[in-house]
Amino acid sequence: MTWTRVLLLALLCGAAAPPGAAANSLRSDVLYALPGRSGQVGFIDLQTLRASPHYDLVKQRFLPPRFAHFERFIRSVGVNLDTDLEWVAWALLPPSPDNPGELFLGLAQGQFAPEAVEDYFRQQKLPTDDDHGQTLFPFGRGGEHSLYFTFLDSSTAAFGTRPSLELLLATRLGEQESLLHNDSLLARISEVNGRQPIWVVLDDHYTRLAVRQLLPEVAQFEQFTQAAQNFRGAALQLEMGREWTLSFQAWCAEPADAQVISLLLQTGLAAQSWQVRENNPALSAVLSRAKVSSVGDRLELEAEVEEKDLQALLERKALP
């Protein structure tokens, strides 16, 4: 899932709920089960977004691809995710010496039926695995990238690859460090959790990736490479009101770095707005209205979308 898709679809989801609607939050017991070296944590309040006429578009293009595999299977055992699912969250862990590939962890809260799943696997004589006292149910594609899910409790499911779930369960039992030991990421999460229906928090590594994907023109500047090394993290959230505003904040090591990147982002936004003005005028208008500023060591970007632009963007069959 590219950061450009996160930006655009967060803007498009603005019609999901009336102003002032309360958002669900990621529960503390689930949050503290996430590994401490998580680099990205995201949250989507589907219960709130379900009021949107664009709910299907949100599901198809915004949720992580691995969730589609989980959704298809869980439907087959009688769980209606269009009515029973409340929220979906995920965490990404960058490669490490122990895990050379990126790890993905998915979490979902809803009205599940663990007993029905167990009965289904037993009746179909399907194999299951066990780890840390939890039953792991395989689903999706096979091979080394096989996906599994398990129930943390009757209303919470976790899904991902076997190494991802093993790490989650070990963290949950205190065998691995949790987010309680990641002060910077936990502080960013506390600023957005429960306030808006869509939010994403990133560490320095994922912040650099996000800005490069969002505005590739900016990454071409020599000054960006040097300044981006001093990113300390970022947070994205969608604010709902008369207009819908996407807020992106990034923290830098020094105020000078925030100022440099602010100037580069302004240039990149103008360039991208110009490039898409003919084939995507609605997106061009959104980009041209985006505001970039820096306050101390913090970089701020705000983009508002009006109703006419929202409609035009949704009518496009292919989003950038």
Please name the defining characteristics of this protein.
12-stranded antiparallel sheet, alpha+beta, 15 helices, 320 residues, single chain, 2 domains, disordered N terminus
List the helices and strands and how they pair.
Layout: H1 3-12, H2 28-31, E1 40-44, H3 46-49, H4 55-62, H5 65-76, H6 81-84, E2 85-93, E3 103-110, H7 114-123, E4 129-131, E5 134-139, E6 147-153, E7 156-161, H8 162-172, H9 183-192, E8 198-202, H10 204-214, H11 216-219, H12 222-228, E9 231-240, E10 244-252, H13 255-275, H14 281-289, E11 291-295, E12 298-305, H15 307-315
Antiparallel strand pairs: 1-2, 1-8, 2-3, 3-7, 4-5, 5-6, 6-7, 8-9, 9-10, 10-12, 11-12
Task: Give a verbal description of the structure.
With 320 residues, the chain is α+β, with helices and mostly antiparallel strands. The protein has two domains: 36-179, no CATH class; 195-315, no CATH class. The chain contains 15 helices and twelve strands. Helix 12 crosses helix 13 and helix 13 (255-275) packs antiparallel against helix 14. The longest helix has 21 residues, at 255-275.
